[in-house]
Amino acid sequence: MLPRLLDPDNEHDFVWADSAYCGESFENLLNLGGFESLIHENGARNHPLCDAAKQLNRVTSAIRACVDHIFGSMTMSMGGKLTRKIELERTQAWWGLKNLTFNFLHFLQRSGHIAVTA
Fold this sequence. Notes:
The chain has 118 residues and is mainly alpha-helical. The protein folds into 2 domains: 2-77, no CATH class; 83-118, no CATH class. Helix content is 55%, strand content 7%. Strands 1-2 form a two-stranded parallel ribbon.
């Protein structure tokens, strides 16, 4: 599944993922594609993570939390992430409108104009 998600035309070469994707096979695949891995590392029993790995996990967790909150908000208050649209153009338009709605509600909430509940 991971090779289908990697887009060589992507603007950035970073891959963000949780520890389910850590391992030598994934690292080799990312290196072959020219991607930089920002995948969480896991400590093993009696083999804790070094301080550098813990610090990198903290940094990546802070960034991933921002993205996860957006998808959580869409899932819980905006009707979910599932789409049953026919044709790619309709699906892209549906996601574009959903993203626009989220950004608009987020702007209103941050600017303090109104208390927003979607």
